[in-house]
Automatic annotation (TrEMBL):
Gene3D superfamilies linked to this entry: Mannose-Binding Protein A, subunit A (3.10.100.10)
Protein name: C-type lectin domain-containing protein
Pfam families: Lectin_C
Ranges for domain C-type lectin: 1-110
Amino acid sequence: ATTMTWAIAEFYCVSQGAHLVSIHSADEQNFVNSLISSFDYSAKPIWIGLNDLFHEGTFTWSDGSEVNFDFWNTGEPDDYGSRENCGQSSGPSFKWNDYSCTSSCPAVCAFSLTPEKTAR
């Protein structure tokens, strides 16, 4: 899989009409887990749309949706070294971790299934 920084991954997703994946329920988390597993990346970190780039400690989704579910690993987010601002899903449990945004990882993009309203 292609690896890239968090910002380049989000830019790539947007160029495809999507965003880095946002996760809002255990069912969605399980779906993302199975998607990652099907590509055999289960032990490698994968970028998701979480970040606290705009306000340290307040995580938001890159698609602007509400953060109404979390799956943080124990002790996370920890902003280790005061430089971890982007979210990833990693390890065999796919728990979330905050990580340096400039690291290179594969990513999961997600398209909205709700069509955009257009003016008539």
